[in-house]
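thread from #wetlab-drylab

HS: before we spend reagent money on co-crystallization trials with beta-D-glucopyranose, can we at least see a predicted complex? here's what I'd submit
DV: go for it
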Amino acid sequence: MSDSHRFPDSFLWGASTSAYQIEGSPLADGAGPSIWQRFAHSPGRTVNGDTGDIACDHYNRWRGDVALMKMLGLQAYRFSISWSRVLPEGTGKVNERGLDFYDNLVDALLAENITPNATLFHWDLPAALDDRGGWLNRDIAEWFGEYASVVYARLGDRVPMWATLNEPWVVTDGGYLHGALAPGHRNLYEAPIASHNLLRAHGRGVQAFRAEARVGQIGLVVNLEPKDPATDSDADRDAAQRGDAYMNRQYLDPVFFGKYPDEMRDIFGDAWPDFPADDFKLIGQKLDFLGINYYTRGVVRDDPLALPVRNAYVRQTEHAYTETGWEVHPPSLTRTLTWVTERYGPMPLYITENGAAIYDAPHTIEGAVHDPLRVWYFREHIKAVHDAIAQGADVRGYFAWSLLDNYEWSLGYSKRFGIVHVNYETQERTPKASALYYREVIRSNGASLDP
Ligand code: BGC
């Protein structure tokens, strides 16, 4: 077997999940409600009215799930911490039992030689903080700093990889602009404020880390989606540029360049405020790495009615699409990694999420669910990461989304992203063919991707 796809020796292979999507028992042991608890329990907000009340019952089954990770040969596991388990009111009184859950999980991972990679915020804001304005209140940077410090104090001696936020773009676009995600607002004027406060909170979280954590590295996790114009027309090219500014550069330029892209004012008009210059010092804290979640690219055309970005996706008839309607386009993963390297300078990069919602045929053979399209998706995207390394991107690791089929936010349980199938009636876990394929990629450090 040729080893042309062998990865660097220190390359880290893992899988990702998030708290509300897998844990279940959201109010157990003194936890406070999150905005997802409220949103999912509000009529008409989620497919089938699905909630995260049970999800994968990971809160009770975490020991078995760690054994599953071990069986799959994972070297790292990315999970998120529920803010309202740790601080039921968002600030103030600490709920030690909430911290115990993550403390035990971290110890179990380390005992199996699996590197814990903890994200502090993956969308489940404490409801008590939403009552105080949530991401629209400037004080949230301090609230987040307080929460981060409490977590670092308990886990900072053992967790080597941290991220402040998962995907600030989705929090704002889904939560404050289009309303499909919690807290479900649809307000052009709120969106820039929410984004800015997310970035300020991120900066505050990094500051607290430098002051207190004893080991490890910290980064930010963003979702990046390259935008291509549907035609060569100036209008479509401008539409793609706006899309790129809105989705990609809006969250990276402030961190690395200390300012927002010029296009933001064109996109938001008078909803785009002037932000205090000092804020960019806080936002621009030095990072140890950047986490990139990559799922798809966007081919777009000019569409003056699609406010505020004024572009619309154009379906590519020659390409496959996943069940969430996302074009499968592995070369754009390579391009994303080299673009970040060129635009923001060389830095350690991790693919913190990559995966696909694909229908899994219901039959199982020898204990495996057959998911050939997901196997194909992973093979081509992991090769695309290898290509990016060959082109000079400093990619240090790859995390598949997701370890388990789980609660896909407002889409409920209708979409399955897992490499492990979850039977939601019995909670039985069955590794899919993609999990076994990934295990071999890990074991061979990429060599099995050939030819
Ligand atoms: C999020 C995950 C989500 C996945 C698939 C990412 O945007 O971080 O929570 O399940 O995409 O939609």
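DV: The first helix runs from residue 19 to 22.
HS: ok that's useful, forwarding to the group
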